[in-house]
Design a protein that fits this description.
139 residues, mainly alpha
Length: 139
């Protein structure tokens, strides 16, 4: 009886340890749940790309920009705006210019009503967002 209780208690504790999210032991590490969310959101963005309509590509770029901001906040990069966080994170990116290209394209899509990006520009921006997210360990 005591052995059975000890065994159940051990299994319970082992299960609890497995479910616990990873802690941030160093500045900037992304937790398991944040990474899982980022991967899920990236998958949704890829589904938008698969629709192959200009409006879906535009939305994918906008969502990718939001996701990058979420990850930068989660990694504790300082700044009030995404632009400020991108400046703070410049050393983390293998292609800082590409990240800025993608972010500026997103800004034009959102703030300039008459701006119509070409499909290749949108796909290019998405590649830069993906590289940045990989650099940060989010996808």
């Amino acid at each position: 009886m005591i052995l059975a209780v000890a065994l159940l208690l051990g299994l319970f504790l082992l299960g609890m340890m497995r479910r616990r999210p990873a802690k941030r032991s160093r500045r900037g590490e992304i937790s398991y749940f944040e990474k899982e969310f980022a991967e899920h959101k990236w998958q949704q963005i890829q589904e938008l790309v698969g629709i192959a309509k200009p409006s879906a590509l535009r939305q994918a770029v906008i969502e990718a920009d939001k996701l990058l901001d979420y990850v930068l906040k989660g990694k504790k990069f300082r700044g009030e705006t995404l632009g400020e966080r991108l400046k703070a994170a410049r050393e983390a990116f293998s292609d800082n210019d590409g990240v800025w290209y993608a972010h500026k394209l997103r800004n034009r899509l959102v703030h300039e009503a008459e701006y119509e990006a070409m499909a290749y520009e949108l796909r290019d921006a998405l590649k830069h967002f993906e590289r940045a997210l990989k650099d940060l360990g989010a996808v």
